[in-house]
Amino acid sequence: MKLISGIVVTAIFAVVTFGLWAYANRPESEPPWPAHGIQGVSFSPFAEDQNPFGSKDVPPVEQIDSDLRLLENKTFAVRTYRASGTLGKIPELAAKHNISVALGVELLKDEAGNEQELRTGIALAHEHRNIVRVIVGNETLLTGALTEEQLSGYLDRARRAIRQPVGYADTWATWLKHPEITKHVDFIAVHLFPYWEGVDVESAVDFCFRELKAVQDAYPKKPVIIGEIGWPSEGRIRGGAVASVSNEALFLRQFLARAEKEGERYYIMEAFDQPWKARDEGAVGAYWGIYDVNRQPKFEFVQPIVRIPEWHLLAAISVALAVAMLSVFYRSSGSLRTRGRTLLAFVVYAAATITVWVIYDYTQQYLTPASVIVGTLLILGMLGVVVVLFAEAHEWAEAHWAGAFRRVLDPTVGGNTSVRKVSVHVPAYNEPPDMLNETLDALARMTYPNFEVIVVDNNTRDEAVWRPVEAHCQKLGERFRFFHVAPLAGFKAGALNYALARTAPDAEVVAVIDSDYKVEPNWLSDLLPAFDNPRMAIVQAPQDYRDEDDNAFKAMCYAEYRGFFYIGMITRNERNAIIQHGTMTLVRRYVLSAVGGWAEWCITEDAELGLRVFEAGYEAIYIAQSYGRGLMPDTFMDYKRQRFRWAYGAMQILRHHASALLQPSASTLTAGQRYHFIAGWLPWIADGFNLLFNVAAIGWSIAMVVAPHFGPHRVDAPLMIFSVLPLSLFMFKLVKLVHLYTSRVGMNARQTAAAAISGLALAHTIGRAVLKGLITGDEPFFRTPKRAAPHRFFTALGAAREETILMLGLWASALGIHMIPKEVASPDQTVWLAALLIQSIPYTAALLVSLTSAFHLPASLLGRRRPSAVNTPAAQE
User: What percentage of the chain has pLDDT greater than the value 90?
Assistant: First the structure.
C-alpha cells in the first residue's frame, strides 16, 4: 500500500506540474507581423562586445552592411543616433538595400563634440537622398544634457541648413512640459515606453495611443511621429510591466496592427539587442531588440505566441528531478503516511520547477564576467536554500506523518536478569560544591545495585570549591571515588579519558552525566536491558532541565531545547543515527575503548564519539523519556557560548569525518546515518552562509543608495526570485515549528513563540561558530557556568552587541532603499526591502532574549506546558 501511495502521489503531482507548465505557456493568437514589412526601426549595429563609449570607428562598415542586408525587405526605414564615425556610413549603405534613414544627430554636454556632430549631420543630409528626416538630439531635455535654449539653437541651425524635415525626439511627458521646443522643429518625435511607466502589457497599446493623442492634441499644427516604441524581452518587473519575450511579441504585434489601421508613423525600438545599454539602463537595457545580439529573431512573427517555446523540455526536466528526489525520500521513509508523502511531493515539485525555471531564465541573459560570478553565487545560494528546504520538509513529514516508530525502547519491559556493572563518570570544573553534591546524592539513590561513581575535578584552582566534593564522596561510601587533577589537558574529554583509565575492571558500561544533573532512581534499571543486544553500544536519554520555572528567560530556553530532543532525535533514532550528547548517556565500555576513547581534539567529544561508534558498525538507541534534569544557562551570553560550542564542534566533526560522511565507500556508515548527520547540520551551515549573506546584503544595499552606478554596472535590487526563496524557507520553517511544537512536543502558543524567538536569537552565534569552525580547529572548550549571577541591563545589551549592530545595519539599509526615489513601484526592490527586514528578525530576537534574561520576568508568562505528544502514535489521517 505504501508503494502504491507513493506512486499515486508522485504521478498526481507530475501531471499537475506538467499542466501548470502547459497553462503558463498556452499559445496566444495575436495579429501577425505586417507581411510587407514595418515602417521603421531604431538601428544601433553594435555587436555583443562593442559599445559607443570608445572609438568612433566601431562597428566596422562590413558589419553594418550585414545588418542592413538582414533588414532589407523587413523595414522601410531605420533611425540612427549618431552621424559621426562609421555610423555616418549608414545612409550610404542603407541606400544599397532600399532602406530610408531618419538620421540622428547626437547632442551631449560636450559643446565642441556637438559642433562637429552637427556639421557632419548637415553634410550627410545634403549628400544622401534616402535621408528622409533628421532628428537633432535624443532625450537631451529628459537627461538634462542641454537646456531648452541650447537645444533650440542647434535645432534652428539645422533647419536653416537642411532641406529635410528636422525634429527632436523625447518622451511624451517631456514634450508636454516643453511646448516652446515645438516652435523650433518641423515634426515631433515621441517616445512611448509603457514598460518604463509600469503599465501591464494588456493595457500597454491603449496607453501608448492615449499618450500619443495627448501630444497630438497639445500641438495640432505639428506632425507627430512615434520616434521610439517597444517592449523588453528580459528585465525586472516594473509595476505591472513584466519583461519577457512573449510580452515583447504580444505588445509589438498588437501595436503594429493598430498603427497600420490608424496610419501612424513609427520606429520600433529596436532592430538588435544592445548589451552595452545595460550600463545606463540596468540589465533591461540590453533586451529591446526584435533580433537578439546574434541577429536571430527572438519570437514568432506570425505563429501564436508561446511564453517559453522550450517549456515541454523544461517541464520534463523539473518532473524528472522531482521524481528522482521523491524516490529517494519515499524509499528511505517506507512508513510515511499519504499526507507526509503529499507534503514532500508539494515541496519537491515546487522547488524543482522554480529551480529549473530560474536557471533557464538566467541562461537566456547576456552574461558578463561580473554577472556570471554574481549569478553563479546567487544560483548556488538558491540551491543551498532548496537543499535545506528539502531537509526541513523531510523531517516535518517523518516527525508527524510517519507510521509507528520501529526502534523504540520500552522501559517497562524487563530485559536480561544479569546485572552489568556500570561506571558513572561525572566530569567537573569549578562547579558549585553544593550543586555537585546534590548530583552525587541523586546517584546514591539509584535503585540499580551494581555501579560505581568516578568524579574527576580537572584544573579547579580554588581548593575551597573541590574539597567539599571530595569530602562528600568519602561520606557516600567506597563506590564513590573522587579525583582532583591539575593540570589535565583535553578539557571535558580529557577528564572522561582519565576516568575511563580508572574504571573498575569488571565494569561493562560507562555512564556519563554532567555535574548539574539529578538522575531518576530508575535510570540505570530501565535502560541497561538495552545492552542485551550485543550490537548496542550507546543508550541515550534526553537532555532535560529542572529550572524552567525560575524565570521567563529559562522558560524560553527550555521551550527551544525540547524541539531537538522530542522531534529531531526521534526521527534520527529510526535510522540508528542519533546524536550522542554528553549527559544521560550509556556506552558499552569495550566499544568505547575499541574506538579510542573520547576525542580530546574536539570540543563536542560526545557527538564525535557517537559518529565513531557508528563508523565501527555498532548501534545506538534513544528513548524520549526524561531520566535526569540539569540546569540551564543563567544568562544569554552563556546560552550563546553553549550553542557556539555545539556548532563549532559540529564543524570540527564534519571536517574530520568528511570522507566517511561524503564518500559511501570510505566507511560502513549507512545512507541514513550519513543523511542525518549532514542534514542535521545543514540548518547550522545555512546560518553561517546567511551571516555572510546579511553582511553582503548591507553592502549591496549601501551601494544601491550611495553608488547606484558602480563603474560600468548598475546596482539594482537582486531579482525577486532570489529573495523570495529565502523568505519562503523562513516561513516554511516557522510553520513547521508551530505545527510540530504544538502537535508533537505539547507546547502552547506562547511557548511555541518563545521557542521560535529563542532559536532565532542563536542564529548569529551559530553562524559565527560555523564559519570559524570551517576554517579553524583549535577553539577552546567553554564550560557553561552554573548558578551564575544574572546580567544587568547594560551587560545584557553588550551580550547582544554584534546582533544589535547587524539589526540596525539591516534596518538602515531598508530605510535607505525605501527612500530611493522611484517613478514606478519595483517588486524586486519591494521584496528586497522585505527580505532585509525579515533578515533582521533573528538579530532583534537576540536583543529581546538578552534583555529578557536581565529583567527576571516570571516564567508563568509563557503558560503551563501541556503533556508531550512524542510517545503517542503518529497522528491518524
Answer: 75
